[in-house]
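Entry 0007
Protein: Helix-turn-helix domain-containing protein
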Amino acid sequence: MEMDSDLITLEELAVLLHRNVNTLRVAVSNRPESLPPRVRFPGVQRNYWRRSTVEKWIASFEEPFDPAERRDQPTSDMPVQRVEVVRKTNSCETPRKNRVGRPTKAEQIRRREVA
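Output (structure tokens):
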């Protein structure tokens, strides 16, 4: 077995994970736990991954797809609650706090009508 073919670079990992290379670069530094275990050589800044480790890591996220099984299972243990959506009205009332910046068009018109 060749050692070169066993190790993959960040670019090859991006292809395997269907992710952008820059996204993975950020993940390597900010959230390395979200990626498969990497291989770091002393004195080398570049990151490498073992192809076999990456394939096992990907396989660990596989779950069988059975539509009947998914319908029977609740999506969560918490009871479903109704949520009331409250929408703000688009009124032309002036805000009570002084806003920073230019007045809105509605505020300008209202001030002209009052004056």
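Curator remark: DSSP finds six helices and two strands in the chain. The first strand starts at residue 7 and ends at 8.
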